[in-house]
Each structure stands twice: as C-alpha cells, then as structure tokens.
Amino acid sequence: MLSKLLMTGAAGGVGAALRPLLAEFATSVVLSDVTEITDLAAHESFQLCDLGDSGAVAALFDGGVDGVIHLGGVSVEKTFDLILNANLVGAYNLFEAARHHGQPRIIFASSNHTVGYYRRDEQLDNTVLPKPDSLYGVSKVFGESLASMYFNKFGQECLSVRIGSCFPKPADPRMLATWLAVEDLADLCACAFAAPRLGHTIVYGASDNAESWWDNRNADFLGWRPKHSSAKWRAEVLASASRQDARDPAVIYQGGGFVAAGHPSDKS
Amino acid sequence: MLSKLLMTGAAGGVGAALRPLLAEFATSVVLSDVTEITDLAAHESFQLCDLGDSGAVAALFDGGVDGVIHLGGVSVEKTFDLILNANLVGAYNLFEAARHHGQPRIIFASSNHTVGYYRRDEQLDNTVLPKPDSLYGVSKVFGESLASMYFNKFGQECLSVRIGSCFPKPADPRMLATWLAVEDLADLCACAFAAPRLGHTIVYGASDNAESWWDNRNADFLGWRPKHSSAKWRAEVLASASRQDARDPAVIYQGGGFVAAGHPSDKS
Amino acid sequence: MLSKLLMTGAAGGVGAALRPLLAEFATSVVLSDVTEITDLAAHESFQLCDLGDSGAVAALFDGGVDGVIHLGGVSVEKTFDLILNANLVGAYNLFEAARHHGQPRIIFASSNHTVGYYRRDEQLDNTVLPKPDSLYGVSKVFGESLASMYFNKFGQECLSVRIGSCFPKPADPRMLATWLAVEDLADLCACAFAAPRLGHTIVYGASDNAESWWDNRNADFLGWRPKHSSAKWRAEVLASASRQDARDPAVIYQGGGFVAAGHPSDKS
Amino acid sequence: MLSKLLMTGAAGGVGAALRPLLAEFATSVVLSDVTEITDLAAHESFQLCDLGDSGAVAALFDGGVDGVIHLGGVSVEKTFDLILNANLVGAYNLFEAARHHGQPRIIFASSNHTVGYYRRDEQLDNTVLPKPDSLYGVSKVFGESLASMYFNKFGQECLSVRIGSCFPKPADPRMLATWLAVEDLADLCACAFAAPRLGHTIVYGASDNAESWWDNRNADFLGWRPKHSSAKWRAEVLASASRQDARDPAVIYQGGGFVAAGHPSDKS
Amino acid sequence: MLSKLLMTGAAGGVGAALRPLLAEFATSVVLSDVTEITDLAAHESFQLCDLGDSGAVAALFDGGVDGVIHLGGVSVEKTFDLILNANLVGAYNLFEAARHHGQPRIIFASSNHTVGYYRRDEQLDNTVLPKPDSLYGVSKVFGESLASMYFNKFGQECLSVRIGSCFPKPADPRMLATWLAVEDLADLCACAFAAPRLGHTIVYGASDNAESWWDNRNADFLGWRPKHSSAKWRAEVLASASRQDARDPAVIYQGGGFVAAGHPSDKS
Amino acid sequence: MLSKLLMTGAAGGVGAALRPLLAEFATSVVLSDVTEITDLAAHESFQLCDLGDSGAVAALFDGGVDGVIHLGGVSVEKTFDLILNANLVGAYNLFEAARHHGQPRIIFASSNHTVGYYRRDEQLDNTVLPKPDSLYGVSKVFGESLASMYFNKFGQECLSVRIGSCFPKPADPRMLATWLAVEDLADLCACAFAAPRLGHTIVYGASDNAESWWDNRNADFLGWRPKHSSAKWRAEVLASASRQDARDPAVIYQGGGFVAAGHPSDKS
C-alpha cells in the first residue's frame, strides 16, 4: 500500500479510467495534468503541471511520494515540437525529479508504437530491438532508454508498460489483439509496486486476448495475470468492421493506423 | 461468413467429421472427392474430382468460391506414384486454380509428419526446418513450400495446418499429445477465414492437450484457442495400451508409427 | 501403476508429505532414510540406509523395485564433507545400484539452487547452463550430470526435478514464485512413471504460481500440468513480509538466501 | 579417394566446370545427362539418362558407384511439367537407385532459391524454414526433404548444397554475395566424401565473399573452408552495373531475379 | 562515387581524420560544424551550422547532396540541454532535411554507448535491446530509432554506426576491443554508399581486433571487412596500463568510463 | 607478467609440453604432481601433492602465487573412487586453497568430455547444458560448476578450458577437429592472466582447425586467437585412418571413444 501516489496525465482517457481503481493500493493520490481536474475524491488532490517545466515537475514531488504513474505527455502522433516538450523534455524532467526525491518507483506509460513496424505474425518479447512507427513512438523509445539508464546507473526502478489500447471496449479488429482492460492495468501497477524488485522492466500492456502478438514471459516474475479478454466483443467488432485489406501496411504491421499515417508536418 | 466454401477430400474421415460444422461459417459448401458423397444436406453440393486432373480441379472453382479447405490427397504412407498424383500434382493444381479464380483463402491439410523425425522431448514452433518421416510427409513439405511461394510471389493466402490426429477420441498414448478435436479444427478454420490478414501461416493442429510437443505462439495473431483436451481419455488410453519401449524409434520420435514403417515399395 | 516404489530421504519434510500420496501409483513402497520411520502404513516398509554406503544402497533394490524417488541426501548448504558423502557419493551409489537392478526409472530431487545465480527477471528453460549458488547447488549439478550420462550411455531413465519450495504453504515473498504443492509433485512423479519415454529430463518443480521464473515447455511431453497456486496466500505473505531491498543479492537472484549465505566452513 | 563417381547433369555449366577437378578425388567418373558428352577424358565414361526414367537412373549405378554428384534436372524457373519430371520424379528416382545400390554418398545440387524470399539483410544458417522463390525453388525444397527422410529412415547420407552462383566470375552485384568458385565447390565435394560422418547436411554454396547472407557454421564439422572470393571483381562489377533500386523486390530479397519473375505458365 | 557528400561535425576528431579519405568516393565534400574549418582542400567547402537550427540544417542540402556523413552533435556525456539541442533536435532536423532533399543516404555516427550497460563477456549483434550508459547514449538510441522510423515509413536509408573508439591508436586496455581505424571507417562508409540496398542497418564500428564484444554478421551483406587491428599496440597498451579492478563497473561493462561517470548535472 | 605461477599436474603430457612456454608470462613456476619432476629449470621448483589432501594443496600456495594452471587430476575415464579423490575432492581443495590465499586467477583444465554427447554436426557455444560422456566428464562438469559458484559468490576468477586434444599432432580423424596446439594453449593462458576481467569464463580449447564443432565467440573478449591448425596433418591422418562407420556412436558424438567405452567398473 502506497502512502502517496503521483499520477501525471490524469485528465486523459486512461487517467480518468484508472482514478477510481487507485484507492486499492494508494492512501492518497496527487493528480496532475495541463488540464485542471475538479471532481476530486476525498483522497485526491490536483496540481497543474506542464511536463516541460522542470521546476513544476519537481514540485509534484513536494512532501514526498512513494509511487508514480506517469501517463502525461502526448499520446498520439503530433508535430515534433509538441512531442519534444512533453515527451522528451517531460520524461527527462520526471526522471530527474524522481531521482532527487527518494526514487519512488515509476510506472511509465510507454506504447506499442515503440514496436509498430513489426508484423502481426511476429511474436515479440521484451528484448526486441524497437521499431517505432511514428515520432510519438520514437519519443517512447527515448523514454524507455532513459528509464533503462536511470536504473542501471542510479538504481531508479521503473516499469515501462507498452500499452496497447486502453479503452472501455475494443473498437476495431486490431484492438481484439491490443485491448487492455483498465482493471488489468490497475492490477499491473499494483504488482509493480508490490514486487520485491522491479529494476527496469518492459511489459506489453494487453489483456488476456485470444489474438496476441506479445509475449510477457520475461516479466512473469511480477506475478501479473490479466483477467479480462476482448473475446466477448469479438463477434460484434467483426460484424461492424469494414473489410480489411491484407496488403495494407496498417493491417500487416502491429502499429495499425500509426504506420499508415504520414509525417505530422506534411500538408495533407 | 463465407458465401461458398469448397472442401476437397470431403469423403475422408476428417472431411466427414467437419461437414456438419461448416455451416457455422459458410452459406453453401461444395464437397469434392474421388469417392461420391450422396447424403448431401441442403446447403451442400458434390463434385467428383481427381486432384491430378488440372481441368477437373479448375472446374471446382466454377461460379466462384470464397474459401477452400483442402483435405484431398493421400493421407498415409503410400507408394510414390500415388503420392505424386494426388499430393504433388494435386497440390499444384489446386494452388493454380485458386490463383486463377480470385485467390480465395486456402486451409491446407498439412501434417505433423512433415516434422516426424524430431524427438518428442523437442518443442517445435512453426519456424523449424522440416524433418519428414515418410514419402507422405515429404509431399506435405512440398505443399507447404508451394503455399509459401504462392503467398510471397502471388499474394495467395493460406493456412497450413500440421494436423496431429483428428479422430473422435485418442486411440493410443501418442494421440494424447497429437489429438485434434474436430470442433477445434472447425474453430481454427473459422479464425483463419476471419483474420484481417492470413499470409502463409503454419500452425500445429492439436487440441489443448496436457501432453504437447508443439508451440503455436507465432500463430497467436489468429486468435485460435482450442477448447478440447485429450485428458478425459487419458486413464482409459493408458490402461489399454501395451507397454511402450523407450528405445523404440516409434516412441522416441514424434512421427510414431510412420517413423518405424519401411519404404512403401519394399516387399514386406 | 508401480509394483514396488523405493523412496529415499523418506523421513525428511518432502518425503513425509509425499508418503500419503504415493498409494495412487504404487502398490508397495519401500521407505529409506538415515533416520528410522516407525509409523508405517500397511503398504509401506522401511530400510535404514546411509547413501554413502554402496552396499546399503544396493540392498535397497533387493527383490526388485520398478520406480525410485530419490529425495535422500543433504538438502541445504552444509560443509563439503557432508555433501560429499550424501550427495556426491550417494548419488553415484544410487545410479549404480539402479543400473545393476533392472534400471527402474528414477525421480531425482534436484534443486533450483543449481541455477540460483540467475536473476529473477530471467526466464529459464531446462537447457540453460547451471549457475549454482552453494556447495549444495553444485552437488545437484553433479547429480543431474550423472543422470544425463547414465541415460545417454546406459539407457537409465531419470527425471531431475529442480524443486522450488515444497512446503505446506509459501512462507515468504520468494516462495510466491518457487512454491510447489506436494500434490503437484505427486502428479509430476506419476506423469514421469507413466510416460512412454522419459529419457533424462530436467523439469522445474513449481506449482502454477502467478510469479514465475521458469519455463517447463521442453517437458510438456510429460503431460504434467500443476493444479495449485501460491495465489491464495499472496496477500497474507506480503502483509507479513519485512521490506525487501531491491539491491540485496538475495532479492536480485533466484537462489534467495542461499546466494547471501557465506561459505559453510567459514567462521561466522 | 573414390573408385567410381557418378555425376548427373554433367553437360550443364557447373558439370562442365567441375569435370576437370574430379580427378583429385575419383579414379573413374561416370558422366550422365540428357545431352550427350563426347569429349571424354580417359577416366571418364558417359551414359545418357532422362532422370524421369527410373530404369535408366537405376542403370547409372550398374557395377557400383561409391559417390554421386547429382547436378541433373532443371536449374532455372520452368513450367511445372518440366520440373515435375526432372526435379521431383528425378530426385526420387535417384535416391531410390542409390538406396538399392549400396547407398553411396550423394552431393545434391540444391539451390539458394530454396530460401529466396529471405531479405538480404537476414543472415541464414542451415536450420531456417525454407522460403522458396519459384517452382524451381520448391522442387529443391522437395529434394532436400527427401534427402532428410532418406537419411533418417534409411541411413542414406547426403550433402545438400544450396548453390549460389557457380560461374567463372561474378556477373552482377548480387553475385558478389552468391558467387561460388568451382574450385571451392570441388573442395566441398571432397570434404563431404572424406568426412567420417555426413548424415544429411545442408550447406550454402558460396565462396569466401565479403558480401554474405549465409552462415555455414553448423557444417563446420566438414572442414570446408572456401579459398576464393568475389572481391577481385568487385570494382569491375559495380562499375558496369546499372543502378539498383533499393525498393525492387529483386534487390530486397536474396532470390534476386527469381523473385521478380512471374509464373512460368503465364503469358508474358 | 558520390557527386557531393555532406559531412557534419567535420571539425571534430573523427571528422578531421576522415576528411583526407573521403576523396576516394566523393567528388566534392561539404564540411559543416559549429567551429569554422579553414584549411580546405580544393574539393572541399565549408558551411557553418548549428544542428539545432532547422533552417541552417536544411541549407546544408542546398544544391543537392547525394550522401551524408552525420558526425555532428555532442560526442561525450554532457548536460541535458546541450544534448537536447545538438543530438535530439539536431538529429530530427537532419533527417527532416534529408527527407525533403531527395533522401540521400545517411551514415549516422551512433555510439557503443547505446549498449554500454551490457557486460564485456556478452557478445552483441545488431538486434539487441539498447542499454545506454549515459544521457549521451540515450540520445544516440533516439537517433537510431528515428532512423529506423524514417526508413520504414519514408524510405530514407541510413547506416547507424555504433562507433567504438576512433582514435589514431588504442590508448587503454578497453580500446583494444573498441578501436576503430579511421581507414576502416572510411571503407565502411564506402560500402554503405555502394550497397544495392542499405535500408536502416546498425553496425558496430570496430576494427578487426582480437578482443571483441560485437558481432556484425547481420550487416555482412554490406561487404565490409575491416583490415586493421589493435593487436600491434597490445603489448604497449598493457604495459602502460594501470591495474584493472575486475569488480569495477567500468571494467565489467562495455561502456567503460561512461558507466562510472555520475550525472552531468550533479555537483562533483 | 606473473611473479609466481603454480601448475598442478605438471608431470602429465600437457604439463610437460606447457612448461617450456610458461616463462613467457611467469617469472617463477611452482610445479606440482603426484609424480616427482626432477629436470627442473632455474625458474622452476617442484612440490609433491596429492590433490585429495587439503593440507598439501593449501601448502602449494605458501608464500603466495599470483596465478594457477590446474591440470592435476585424472584425465581419462577411471573408476569412481579415483575420480572422487583427484577430481572432486581435488577440485574443491584447490578452489578453497585459492580462496584463502588471495584468489589468484585459476586456469582450470576442463574437458570436451563435459559435452561429449552432443553430435558432431551440432555447434556448441559456452552456454549449452553439459552432456558428459563419462564419469570423468561428469567430474569436469562438477569442477566448472564449482568454479562458477566460487566466482559468483566469492569473486574467485577462473577460466575453464574445455580442452580438446592437446598432443604434438592430431593422431586420428576426430583430432582434426579437437586438436589444440600447446602454443595456442599457452597463448590462451596468457590472455586469461592479462585480461582486465576474467570472471568465470568457459572456453573450448581447440586450435584454428578447419573442422570445428565449437564456437568461442562469448570468450572473444579475452582476445585469444589460436594460430595453429590441424590442416597440415590432414592428408596424413586421413590416409592412415581406418574406415569410419557413420553409424558408430563414437563417430556420431563429439566424445568419440569416451562415448563408446563402457562403465569403468564393469568387467570387460
């Protein structure tokens, strides 16, 4: 049980879904985002913070926190300047702040887009070379590498979760493989905070879906076993899906639509 | 859901068992074999065909089919001339006909005898070099290689199923590992027809048996999870089995009796 | 079903727990230990034996046995002379006796301490190079190597079980990963005696725990599926555990306390 | 030193180049082809043979041979009926004849086109799953599989050489990687005939070229070390080559032009 | 032969050493750096450029270049703001400029510090997960990931060279393994520009040293074979070296001194 | 350069051959054996020692040694009691003595017979699971495991050399693969003593022979490159060799004659 948990990016979709589940393992929760959150529960407080502002990030740790869930930053493809501030500078600011404030464990929201250019018929474990599919994906490789170095050099522990698709339910055929129930994500966070040793571990964030591209065996020491599955929406998803072209890169590669998208700075 | 499914080898054991299950995913079914089938259901039709006859094979696709289950051909060790006609020429005829008729997906009944000379204490995934145990097994390696080339060069998609033992129930200790419930096979076919992309994929056709030599993880993207197991017949099978000699090649190697059988042209 | 099973080390903790379960697959059981056992069931008999005494070990096979569970020997870190007699000479004596008495299959109680210097975030299968964590662990590597040679050269079959923690329930956080329910161990023995071929197989002896460092896929041919899990004691274990230091070798490495212990001959 | 060596396909390019080098390890040489050879040396004899004719193939072994170099058959992409006769039926006829005539070792001219759909930046050893690039390549997979089965079941030893480009000198950029000096091929044959045990071994037939896609380490037990290299023609080849398009499948994949060629039965 | 080659970071040590060798494969060379270069040869020109200035970087490509050697940026551990500008923003600016100017091939000076936290007794190929040892190393992982994405998505080809130690001669025991003769680096660049297809390839930049931690086999398709070795300085280096402590992280890990260095922002 | 080197087993074949070469890297050399050596050079001294006598072994380190070459013990198949004393107790005594005397690096003469039951067409690196072929081979697995534990737990560094055949020249076809020139062994010892860090490293002791079963890449960090080869005796060896039976276990497996030999205690 944590005394005080910090969660960045708390106003986003994953953050909003996770909030009600955090009370399971944290007595109080500091929420942070660039957007204000007003519907606070009794155990929650809010602190506005632009991740690109190192002072503001350090202030999030005032009074001490003993766990961090770092969802903050850009979570889709954007122009480089936006990614630079929130995901590159922002990640650096967060790890530096943690290092200077007692090294609480960090759950880092990485992404499947770090490996989006692997094919769907390739099964990936957590030792594969990244093949990002977007500037966004590249920024998450940066975050994971930073986490790796901060652990090896400074002992700062971190779980990098390559989140698939954390939505209320799978919305398209690709999500039958990538869907992550928020309850499974909460369990994963709990396992990571409870583990005798976390080190820097990379884990794929997907529920126990029948369709699967990812192999988490090297993280089995954490004891995480997802309990949910996309199976109950399978028929519904397939029925409403438009026909998939087997020659479409968005169908061939794991990254899906991110693979097919052009450069964010190009005129459409 | 397919409009019209073609199933070759429909008069054989696996074909007969599969027929009642095909209605789940096909509106109409064309059955074909060298032996006539007369007990046709309303959604079934029959077309006689020797797979060695390219014209007859092409005629199976008349009017268009949008899926093929290719069980046809010799399914045990036979002399080379029989295998040549049905399994070598036959496979070529089938892939050529499919290529010229809109490239419907093919489920190709390959066999565990493509890898029969691996030991039972070796765990095989779908990337291992074939080690066939018979002329029959060699002919199935030919079929898989043809399928691989037809996909890479022409885009013809195919699932090569290395079928274990598709019988009503396991009949001997070896089948505790190799048994494939026909319902699981039907589910696999449905997954393959429904998948956004199939490419050329090799999968081992066995149910969720406790004894296992095969690892299908590279085909997990299909979403197939067999639901049946040989476990309920385990005690019965072991009780009635004669003593196994641990030094017998038929016990050491996966191919079982096929390994121990001599050349089909040799006088017994 | 075995006619007569020999179990060495029957007076130890694992032996005592296994005894009531052996009747499932053995008609009569010869128990042996250096400590006398007096509470014998009708199907049990007892024979005193120091494993370092080759004549006494040979005498255990008098009248013939058709299966051996070899738990005897030192099971924790001890000085070299004790290990030498019971685990080195003792293992040799046992394999020699078996070789001369019809080669009944042997279940050899090896240990996770053969690989104690792998990290907990490393997933081990049964082909990894041993990295023992103690003189005790070295002696178990010796036993496994002896078993490997006796099978390859003489055909003596053996299952080397790298037992995790076979206790009534997990007693600390490490055992959440290493715990082996004695019922699962009994099932494993039954599978090994029933398998058509055993060869020399190494298997990790742990129940179906969520926390896991070990991958038994290469032994899947045995058909063993553990049914128990440490999960039901998880909350209790974590609540009563003292804080784990993520930098402590006993927490980093699989061997736990064995890694941290000094040399048994050093003065404390 | 062999007493009598049989070489099929002796009238082809590789056969003609090899002939003068065979005297190093064979006292007499039987040459065979569908085309007559008239310029026979003293130690050579000629026997006309269509490989599709089992009687004619058997006759090649009359009087006994103690080694076979099987270059015969179609060596480029052709229509299926031609490949069927020479490469499928022909290979079967040859292995059957050898099996019935004392099982002389066979050097089988397989081809890099068995793996033509791997990319050039993939390094292949001899355990990879075949990915043929043509009907011709498929026929060579058949031949290798047949050889594998004939060794495992009947003890017929064979070296399957996945020949790259055996020409007087490299003619284009691709051949800088695939070139095989005929002297290196002759050395390889000599190693295979001299080895204490050959089994069925697959080896890539390329000289010691700086550009390389293939790893022969698993065949290092043969003691073959190619002595030639494409390096001395590198500047010349690159100077005269037309510009390579990095997006051209013929440049991406190992099979080169075979990958780009359509189906041999299609009208051009 | 390139018409116009752009080399950034030309005033640094590696740049200065490479300059005289570029004439082998480039008719004219544009040198760039933040420090002016005045001793220009006839085929050289100079253009001042801060890599963090996207307009200035784009201007380097004015008039077209058909090859880029990108040595620019910070090459040792520095504070994050310096690395941010030169190595993160700088790399992005360079790849964007190349993408908009005809996609000339890029040789990207990455670093062995992308994998500095692997041990020296681990042999690395180019598919391992990065384990950077410094903010500098993290920035090079970013650059490689960016290059990977620019190739997969936009077709921009790049060679990422994980340079070891490119100095006139090895200066300490570690460099016996990491030394890269500048002539070997020049040959590598020439191979990369001449290859039919480069894609995005990672290669370790070390000469043919006896001590070696790196395996370039997956880049063998380039045809690069380093000709130099650290061996001739071995005795001299070992004689003058201070005693190495086998327990020192700087001796255990590949990154050497970078591993031992603290955070660049910490007060010493 | 070592001040004082201890070499056990100095009266044996390898020891006698190594002696003249040790002066390259050791100022004085203490020779030890159960057989007295009288032809001492000026820098050599002799000390009689039964390795089974812990006091005698400890005495070898009197006055301090800064390097050990441990060739002592039984080097062929013998009865268990002989192996027990010299190779099991002896190895323990030596590692204990080294641990108590400043932990000089140990070169441990292990043997290829630790892996004798791998086939010759299998390529082994230093991470494979041992498969010993004899009681002798099992004792060498024990020694390597002891060395592994002494390094991981106590920091005692050691090189375990799986010596092939260290004779003046190869004497039979198997030795074409296993031959180790004594000069190459001396170089290897020198590399191991000079390396900045040795840890516990396993290396196969064979010269640069064309025939090869072993892959030392994971020991490349040592900088050892053997300079000799069995090639110059190849023709002579093959000419005088009797015919090899490809089905003989002694020809199939790496262990050669050790594989074929029965149990040393069996009556012949």
TrEMBL record, chains A, B, C, D, E, F:
<dbReference type="Pfam" id="PF01370">
    <property type="entry name" value="Epimerase"/>
</dbReference>
<dbReference type="GO" id="GO:0016491">
    <property type="term" value="F:oxidoreductase activity"/>
</dbReference>
<comment type="similarity">
    <text>Belongs to the NAD(P)-dependent epimerase/dehydratase family.</text>
</comment>
<keyword id="KW-0520">NAD</keyword>
<dbReference type="InterPro" id="IPR001509">
    <property type="entry name" value="Epimerase_deHydtase"/>
</dbReference>
<feature type="domain" description="NAD-dependent epimerase/dehydratase">
    <location>
        <begin position="6"/>
        <end position="165"/>
    </location>
</feature>
<keyword id="KW-0560">Oxidoreductase</keyword>
<dbReference type="InterPro" id="IPR036291">
    <property type="entry name" value="NAD(P)-bd_dom_sf"/>
</dbReference>
<protein>
    <submittedName>
        <fullName>NAD(P)-dependent oxidoreductase</fullName>
    </submittedName>
</protein>
